Amino acid sequence: MAAQEPALFADRFEVVDVVGAGGMGVVYRVTDQRTGRTLALKTMRHVDGDSLARFKDEFRAVADLRHPNLVHLIELFETPHEWFFTMEYVDGRDLVTAIGSRPDRPWDWARLRASMRQLCGAVRALHAAHRVHRDLKPSNVLVTDEGRVVLLDFGLSVATVHGAQRGDVIAAGTAAYMAPEQARGKKVDKRADVWAFGAILYEMLTGRQAFSGETISDTIVSVLSREIDWAALPSSVPPRIHRLLRRCLHRDANDRLRDIGDARLEIADADFLRRPEEPGERSRDPPRQHEGEDERDQQGGEPHEDLGVLDLLEGPELFVPAAERDGGADEGVRR
After folding, report:
1. Residue 99: CB partners within 8 Å, gap ≥ 6?
2. Sign of CA dihedral 14, 18, 20, 21
3. 143 falls within a domain
4. Active site residues
5. Are 305 and 165 part of one and the same domain?
C-alpha cells in the first residue's frame, strides 16, 4: 500500500490494499474491525456539489436491490472530511479475462452461456428498478472462480421515467460499448444497455471489439457508421445467436431488441454444446437444437445443466474488483 494512502476510514475500516482507481474515486479492500468482514470501500477524489450528488445517486441507485448478480452496496458514510460507501468484496476477474475467446484457450460454451445469462439477469434487475447502467463493458463485470457473475460500477447509471432517461443529458460512457444514441448525447433507455450487451457478447465470441479506433473519436465513428465484421464470428456460433447479435446491435433503437430478458431466453435456447471451431473454420453441418435444451427448473427458468452454477449464487457473499477492473466511474467518454 502506498505511503500516502489512508490506513483507516471512520476509525473502523482498515485498508488492506487498493483494488481500483479512476478520475472520480478510489476503491479499497478493507477489513471491518467491528465484524472482521472483508469489504470493498469506494471514496471520492474530489468533493463538490455535482460530484457528491452523483456519488450519492450511485449508492442509492442499487442499495435496495438484492440480486445475486448485482454487487451488494452496504452503507453510505459521511465524515468531516469525506464521503464513502461500503460494498461486498468479491475476488474475481473481468469477463473477457475469465471466459472470453482467445488463441491459447479452447472455448467453453457451457461457461459462456451460463455467464451471459447471469449478466442478462443482472441487467434485467437494474431495468426493473427503472435504471439504465450506461457503462456495461467487460471490465465492469467480474467472474469468480465459482462461476458467479457480478455487475458493478453504477456511477453513470441514470433513472428512467416511463422508460426514458430522466434529467439532463450528459454524453458519458465507454466509447466502444456506447449505443449510437448515447454517443450522440441523446437521452437513452434500456435499449442502450441491450446494445452494450451485444457488443460484449460479440467480443466474447470473436476475441475482438465490435467497434474500435485509435482515438475516442475514431471509435465513435465506428459505432455510428462502420459495418460490423460479422464474418469474424466462428461458424460454430449458432444461427439464433447470429440473429440475437444483429438485433442487439441495430443502430436504430426502434428496431433493436427491446428487453434484455429476451436475450437471456435466446441464449438459453441456443445449441452451444457442439465442438467449438477455430475462428474462420467453416462448419460442414448446420447447428442442431440439442434435445432437452429447453427444459427449465420450476423456480428460475434455468436449464438443468446450469443448476450447479446457479446453486452457488445462494451461497455466502464473495465479491468485488480485481486489479483488471477500472476504478471509480468517470463522467465523460472513455475508449
Report:
1. 108, 111, 112, 115, 143, 204
2. positive
3. yes
4. 135
5. yes
